[in-house]
Structure formats: structure tokens, C-alpha cells
Amino acid sequence: MPKDTSIRSVLIIGSGPIIIGQACEFDYSGSQAALSLKEEGIEVSIINSNPATIMTDKIIADHVYLRPLTVDSIEQILIERKIDAVLPTMGGQTALNLCKEAEERGVWEKHGVRVIGVDVAAIEKTENRESFRQLMVDIGVGVAPSKIANSFLEGKEAAQEIGYPLVIRPSYTLGGSGGGFVHKKEEFDAALKRGLEASPTHEVLVEKAVLGWKEYELELLRDSNDNVIIICSIENFDPMGIHTGDSITVAPAMTLSDSCYQDMRNQAIKMMRAIGTFAGGCNVQFSVNPDNDDIIAIEINPRVSRSSALASKATGYPIAKIASKLAIGYNLDEIENQITKTTSAYFEPTLDYVIVKVPRWNFDKFKGANPELGLQMKSVGEVMAIGRSFTEALQKACQSLEIGRAGLGADGKHNRSIEEIMHGLEHPSWNRLFLIKDAMSMGVPLESIRKVTRIDKWFLAQIQELVQLETELKRYSLTNIPKEFFFNLKQKGFSDIQIAYLLGNVTEDEVYDRRKSLGIRRVYKMVDTCAAEFAAQTPYYYSTFEEENESVPSDKKKIIVLGSGPNRIGQGIEFDYSCVHGLLAAKESGFESIMINCNPETVSTDFNMADKLYFEPVFWEHVREIIELENPVGVIVQLGGQTALKMAEKLHENGIKIIGTSYNDMDIAEDRGRFSDLLKELDIPYPKYGVAENAEEAIVVANEVGYPVLVRPSYVLGGQGMSIVINDEDLEKAVVKLLGDLPGNRVLIDHFLDRAEETESDSICDGEDVHIVGLMEHIEPAGIHSGDSFAVLPPFSLSAKVMESMETYSKKIARALNVIGLLNIQFAVKDEKVYVIEANPRASRTVPFIAKAYDVPYINIAAKVMLGVNKLKDFKIERKLEGYAIKEPVFSYDKFPEVPKELGPEMKSTGESIRFIKDLEDPYFRKLYKDKSMYLSK
Q: What is the SS3 string spanning 146-173?
């Protein structure tokens, strides 16, 4: 059936700010769906309150509404835009809950709006735990024994009937919020109370816990002809008991028998058909008994999910794009295959490679948090890696994590305490994967590890093979490693740094030169979705070690954009937004744009966003070889946050051109000593400071600059390790801990300007002219990280003199640092005097916010300035803000109830929203200012 021509305008509901459990995978899905519908001539409107995402950019939709995600906001848009249909499946749980609430209030019926992509009834069937359980029983799909409970008494009765261990699953929550395991009777009351409170309907499912069973997911698509295809099978490395968002996952499934897989497929299709007649996508989760292959259904989500983004990047099949076309009436066989361009979308992808996803946690930001993993998701991001084998992909994923690892171990960061290792195997946390390897290296038998972790033996045997290869490598020196063995090491994912470490007294560069001399170099394979059965048109590549290279460089001038890697606190989706604009600006300026990134949730890793995508770790060895193959004009590091900036020194040392501000000038801004010398030379005030390499030196410096002092490491993002101290004793503790966590770092000690106001400026410089992008005033005082502060644009209480100083200092610093591109400066204002706290010549967290508030494409402008194709005078910049815009930080404290909520110099927020007010009399602002300004009186 061709598309439904009665649908002329569609509203896509976004997911709002990034929180743990609902991250930028919905930014990716929503953006892809909007572009897909625009292709069909449909007018697309988006509602989303998140300013940091590309989804809320004008290049994505015809109309973007940066409004609070409420039914009232939605109703206003329905009237204003005369919306025909709403697509709620691209915005996660937030969008589905809003869709359901609007249905209950009669909003869709009142305005004649159709819900597409899902049946509202399907939402109820899947979110209500009892409805889902009963439906599965009715259609003959197995489920774990369970009972619903709406009260404490009902919960106790259910527990008595089913028996321990139990799992408590609240209805209508995201990321496993409020859920948990109960192993014994004494733990039950507290767990039940938590679950009932977490559910908006005060309802939980008390279910038999199938701990140790294997967990799988299938991604499905269905059209209006009831054709269903399975896009991808995903296997959890971790057994049941850990939230799938916190699990290492592998695609395709590795340890699934063919008969079990066929049974699972049939059950998934039956489940999707049973929940409604909608056309679109869904995700189904199963558990399998490892002893007899019995299958039970865990849940079904009638929307795109975190796994949909992963499956799209894993297969090259754009699930959200196709799902949105199915939602407006097309059938699968009527849609073009986006990869081959010659076949239809009615096919199931075939993978001739292995995908590994590893989550990224930020427990270091949540002091006192319980780091043990369970039913409630705690990770803040994830990485994906592609390899020809499981071990190659696994090692590449470890290199992508941005935690200083060179692969899976073999880098000097192993744990040698057998007690800590065995405890970590039994109580899984962020490092269990590494502890498994450490245990094997210390001789712990594979079977002992399997019994404790319940991880499938096949996976453990793969890791054990790495340990055996390491032992064998130690028999050689760099000059006598046999070529075949060297080649095998690289095929198993060992980085040059790991090989150098294992050989001892050898550098990474020496290993690299040696393997080059042996002719062992990376080749690049295309992600083609069909195992090379059909010719692919999409330039989407991963590296491996084989003979044939499928990535043939063109003769065009090329620009490489380095991505920001996994989302984490302090470095979020705003940097991916910046990278996307960097790619678009490069294309518009006549360059071939090349993206290197490893985050499956993001728009920058969509296969049609760049001219060429390398889904690879932003890790020196990988970046280096892509540069050698492609020979770009230069590399953009300004847009990818600290991940990309960390590459700047290596690029500089190897004579590779950095687009925009030079490495030396960026380093001046990072090096507190050099930067303060520059400020002194420019006659710009700054807090007194000193640098120390140990606690004794720190105490001397602190007494010279005067307490209170701000203690921090150099070269970090998101305020990592920062603290404010008021005496020698506290300072000594802070410095010892900081140097223990970040060995080899230096400690910066600044006099802390107590009760000062904090302000920020963002600007663009082309080497001559400076354009002030925006000045912001924080509601919280200095001492609370800028990412955790409410920022108001333009300032609401600063004097003209202070704002003039901020502008003057911004321009002076931009010119003195020879900035070409973006510059963010943070100030402290005390007694009308403006002090410079720090300057960052790169994309910041606040530029996307300012760009959305003023409706100016600032990153695009900055990228064209960096590329040297335009000067600032070439742009006509008109701002459109009436009143004020407020950047509101959003936290995920519900995941860590044990963590103090007090804010300080180390960032804790996971995302942000934008809110517009007409004037300072707005009740929202008055209350906000009254509440927050209480900080000043403390």
C-alpha cells in the first residue's frame, strides 16, 4: 500500500532531557524519523525541551517547539499547526506516557489527530505488567510465575506464594526505576515499598527471578500488510539479573542454537501481532534457560529503544527511518533498501562481523553510590565496536570507553588482589569484564569463574584465549615475533600499546613501525547489511586485519571530524550536535566529510550524515591509520569535547594539521601556569593560584594564595576531581585522593572567590574579528559547576560595566590565543570586579543552548570559520530572542538515592532543558531565583 495521502502534517514527540535510562538514542531516532517524513513531503513538527540535541535543530524539522513536554504544550501545537497525525514511538517512555495521557484526556479525538506507529491500547498492554502477563498466557508464550500487587499486603501474599528469589518490577517506569531483586525474606519489605513508590500507578509485578538464565533481544519491524521481519538478534554477555542497558551485548547472538532461535523468532512475531495492528517497530526481550533452552518472555516495547539504535548501527538498517515510513502507510516491499539502493527494505540483514556494545558508567561522579549492577539501569552512555571476531570487537570496545584502557587488560592496570577480584565477579559492577580477565591471568579456572558469574562458557573461553596469547607473546622480543603470530594478535584486537606493554621496554611507536615493516596494516570493511551478497552504496566502514581493503580514498579534499565517544557526565549530546554541524559545514564548503566515532546512540554515527563514516574507537592507533589512508586536509578536534581534544597533541607531534585553533594555543588555555601568565600580560584579573605535584607543595601554595581554595587536576572535563577546601588537613586528603585517582597529574590550587557570582561568555573568533555568541549569568554562585547551574541568557542582574568587562576580556583572550573557531570563558564576579576562571577554545555545553535560544546556527558558522572558507563579516547574524532563555540542569538522582544531592565544583547533571520566559516577573523565574539565591546567604 502506498503512503496515506491524508497525512499531511505530523507531530513527533521527543524524549526531553538526557537522563539515565533515556539518553540520546531517541535524539537519533527522532531525527531520522523527521528527515524520513520530510522526504515524503510531509510537514514535520517536533516538540522537545532539550536544546543540546540535533533533533531540535531547524535542519531536522519544519517546525521545532522547545517547550515543556506536557499535554497542554502538545495541544497548543495541534491547534497551531493543524496536525493530522502524531508519532509517539521515537521519544522513549516520555513520549509514550504523554501519548497515553493525551488519549485519556480525549485530546487526539477532540482535534481529529491519529496516533501512528503504535496503538494506544498496545502501550497499555505492554506497560501494565499484569495485562502483559495475561496476554502472554493467552497466546501461549511462556512467562515467569508472577502476581500483580497494588498494596503492601498483596505484595507479601505474592511473595509467599511464588517463593524466593524474586524480582520486583514497577509498572510504567523507565530504565528499571524502582525495580530490584529480593534474595531473602528480610529484604522484601524495603524492596516492595521502593517499587510501589516508583510506579506512577502504585503497581508492581512480583515475579520469580530467573537468575543466571541467558538474556536475548530481537528488533522487529511490521507493515500494514502484517509482514514482520527480524532486523537483529542481540545476546547479553551478562546473564539475567543485570538491566540490559547495563549489560555488555553482542550481535548477532553467539551462543543461541538454531532451533531455539527459530522458536524465539516465532514467539516474537506472535507477541507483536498480539499487542495491536499498528505498523512500526518493536523490541522484544527473552530469557532462555541454559540447561534446556526453555524460553520465557520478559517484555515487549512497541517503540524504538536503546537497542533499536544499536541494531541500526550494527546492521546498517535504519530502523527509525523505515518505521516512520511504515507508520504513514508504506509496506516493506515498497521502500528502497537504504544500503544497496537496488533491493527493498523487506529483507533481514545478514552480518559477517561481530558487534559488541559496552556500557559506560560514571560512579566517580556519585560519591557513595552503590556501584553494584542490577535491575535498575545506572550507566550514562555506551560504546559499540565492530570486528571480524568477538575478541577483536571486545578489545576495540574497551579502547573506546574513555577510561584509559588500551584494550581488555595487558596495559598495567590489572587488579592483583584475588579477594577483590572474586568479590567483583560475584557482585558485578563497571569493571567486572576486566576482573574476569584478571582472574584468568592469575590462574583462576574458567569453570570457577562461570559458576560465580553464570556467564556462558563460550564467552569466557574467548577471553581465556587472550590470556594464552599474552603468555605466548612474552616469549618473544619485538624483533623476532613471527609475522603470522603478530598478525593473529592484531586480528584478536590487541592494540600496539598492549603489545608494547607485554614485550616491555618498547614504545607504541616502535611496535607500530615494526608491524608496518612486516606489512601488517589495518584494512577497512564495509557495513553492507547483506554479507556482500549485493553491492552496497553506503560508505560505512570498520577496521580489521585481512588482505582486502574496501575503503578506497577519493581524490577530493577531505576533512576528518573526531567524535566525542560515549556519553558521560560532563561530556554529553551537545558535542555530538556540534560534530554533526561540523560535518554539514564541511560538506557545504566543498570538502568530503569523514566522521570517526564509536557511540551507537548518536546522529553523527548515522551512516548518511557524513560522506564517509568510520565506526571506530577515537583512540590514537585507529585515528592514525585512518588519517594515513585518507590523507585529509586537516582534522577538527574542537567539536568533540575532551575525547577529541586529547588527540590534539598526537596530531601535532605527527605533523597533522589541526583545523582551527592550534595545539599550542589550546595547550596555553589548558595549562594553568601559561594561561595565568597570559592573563597577567593582558592585565585581566584572575584568582591567585599555584601548581603542586604532592600534598606538601599543595599546603605551601594554599597558604600563599589564601583559603578557601579550589583544588583540581589539570586537563579534565566536567569538574572531575574538583573540591573546595578550607584548611590544611582537608587539602592534604583531597590532594592525596586526587593523585591516587589520576596518577601523573598535577594539582591546580586557586584561591576560591567565596560568594562570587558566576558568569560565562561564548564567542567565535576568525583570527581578527570576535563575535560574542552570548553572555550568561548563573543563578547559583561560583563554586557550583557551570553544568549544574541554571544559566540565564541574556544576564538578568549584571551591571553594564560588568558585561562590558566580560566582552572586552573575551575579545582580548580570543585574539591572544589566536582562536580560530569557538571560545568559552567562565568568570567570577565579586564587588563589580570580573575575574577570569578558565577559558576553553572549543565547543562548549552552552553553545547549542545559545544557538537554539537566539535561533542562530552558531556551530555551523564557527565550523566554516575554522575551515577558513568564511570570515565572520561574511555572515549576517540576527538574533530573535524576546525575553530570556534559561538552561535548566536535569539530574538522575532517583538512580542513586544514597548519594548526597548537594552540588559543588564537580558536575553531576546528566542533561538539560530549555525554558523561555518573557520577563523577570515570571512566577517560575521568581521562585527559581528565590530558591537558588539562598545559596548566596549560606
A: EEEECCHHHHHHHHHHHCCCEEEEECCC
Q: Per the omega criterion (within 30 degrees of 0), is the bond before 290 cis?
A: no
**Strand locations in 48-84 (E):** 63-65
Whether residue 166 is predicted with pLDDT greater than 50 in this model: the reply is yes
Which residues, listed in sequence order, are joined to residue 560 by a DSSP beta bridge? 594, 635
Question: Could you tell me the pLDDT band of residue 340, with boundaries at 50, 70 and 90?
Answer: low
Report whether the peptide linkage leading into residue 708 is cis, meaning its omega lies within 30 degrees of zero: yes
Percent of the chain surpassing pLDDT 70: 96
Rounded CA-CA distance 48/92 in Å is 12
CATH 3.10.20.90 fits 529-659, yes or no: no
Taking residues 396-417, report their average pLDDT.
95
Residue carrying the nine cell digits 542490577: 374
What letter would DSSP give residue 344?
B
Give the span between the Cα atoms of 359 and 660, in whole angstroms. Answer: 32
Rounded to 10 deg, the angle between the 847-854 and 573-588 helix axes is 70
Cross-sheet strand order for the sheet of 63-65: 63-65, 43-47, 9-13, 85-87, 114-115
Burial (CB count within 10 angstroms: exposed 0-12, middle 13-18, buried 19+), residue 97:
buried
**Domain extent listing, the chain:** 9-116, 145-208, 220-349, 362-520, 529-659, 688-751, 757-931
Residue at grid coordinates 548566596: 936
Residues sharing a CB contact under 8 Å with residue 104, sequence separation 6 or more, in sequence order: none
What pairs with residue 709 in β-bridges? 725, 751
Residue in this structure with the C-alpha cell 586529547, named with its chain if needed: 646
**Among the CATH numbers 3.40.50.20, 2.102.10.10, 2.40.30.10, 3.40.50.880, which is that of 9-116?**
3.40.50.20
Task: Report the candidate in 331, 117, 309, 323 with the shortest Cα–Cα distance to residue 232.
Answer: 309
CATH code given to domain 757-931: 3.30.470.20
Confidence of residue 632 (pLDDT cuts 50, 70, 90): very high
The per-residue pLDDT for 533 is 59
Distance CA 675, CA 710 (A): 17
Q: How far apart are CA 892 and CA 897, in angstroms?
A: 9
pLDDT tens profile 858-902: 999 999 999 999 999 999 999 999 999 999 999 988 888 888 888
What single letter denotes the amino acid at residue 927? K
CATH of domain 688-751: 3.30.1490.20
Query: Worst-scoring range by mean pLDDT, 31-35, 149-153, 307-311, 518-522?
Result: 149-153
Output the CA–CA distances (angstroms, integers) from residue 683 to 69, 472, 626, 934, in the order listed: 47, 61, 44, 33
Euclidean distance between CA atoms 374 and 396, whole angstroms: 25
Burial 259-294 (b: 16+ CB within 10 A, else e): ebbebbbebbbebbeebbebbbbbbbbbbbeeeeee
- Run of H or E residues at 639: none
What nine digits make up the cell of 831? 564587588
Fold of 220-349: D-amino Acid Aminotransferase; Chain A, domain 1 (3.30.470)
Strand pairing partners for 634? 559
The two most distant CA atoms of the chain are separated, in Å, by 78
Kindly indicate the confidence band of residue 205, based on its pLDDT and cuts at 50, 70 and 90: confident
Nearest-angstrom CA–CA distance, 722 and 711: 6
- Closest by CA to 13, choosing from 23, 26, 3, 22, is 26
Cβ count within 10 A of residue 257: 11
C-alpha cell at 475: 616469549
Report d(CA 821, CA 368) in Å as an integer: 40
Arithmetic mean of pLDDT, 432-437: 98
**CATH tag for 362-520 (out of 1.10.1130.10, 1.10.3720.10, 1.10.1030.10, 2.60.40.10):** 1.10.1030.10
Closest CA to 279 of 330, 316, 321, 232: 330
